[in-house]
Design a protein that fits this description.
By secondary structure, the protein is of the alpha/beta class. It is built from three helices and 13 strands; from the N terminus they run H-E-E-E-E-E-E-E-E-H-E-H-E-E-E-E. It starts with a helix and ends with a strand. Bound molecules: zinc ion.
Length: 241
Amino acid sequence: MKTKKLLATVILSSLFLSGYSSAGFQLPQPERYVELNHALTDGMITYPGESMVKHLNPQPRYPNGSLVDGLAVLGISGTYIDSPHHVDEKLGNISAYPLSSLVNLPITVVTLRKNARVFEIEDFENTDVNGKAVLLFTGQDRKFGQPDYMEESPYLSGAAASWLVKHGAKLVGIDSVLIDNPNAPDAAVPAHNILLKNGVVVAEDMTNIKNVVGTQAYLTAVPPRTPTTSFPARIFAAVYK
Ligand SMILES: [Zn+2]
């Protein structure tokens, strides 16, 4: 009897020490997290004329030490996601996104070819994008906030956007100002139209993508539940290997 009790104690102790909960399940912990967003700061510039960040701080700190403040922000400021409502009145806004579209998506990174400006179908043909967050790494984020950020800005072609939809991508993110050509003479946004109308999340003005190249990582891109067409999001990778 005494031996049985001792054995039970030893088993329970080892379960406790190895981190099992009472349900016998342990959440795998990532090696590290990587921020893939620009922090929002007062007066920051993203897309001139379409972006705005104003830190509201209308009253002094209360005598008890607390401070109440806020933020006025246009949707395409800093690092943000677009909703289908951005391109189609009948489709859902940011608050309509299910969390399954925004949380823990396996990441695959596709790097822009040397001296290229546009991601084309051939850049993806050897990549499994099904169910993935496809991150387009261009390095343009090094110019974020500078006057030349929008010059020769890399983007995704409409044909490549269709390929990504057909092959099951869940989210497409880029570290340049737009996923489309911001300098297109007719202001056409084919990649936006194709991706968003087919339920693929679009993330723009990302940063630090180089820090997840070659890793096994999962992306989370969650904004507040706003009624807007776009909104800044905390976008980050949980890196497991
Ligand atoms: Zn957009």
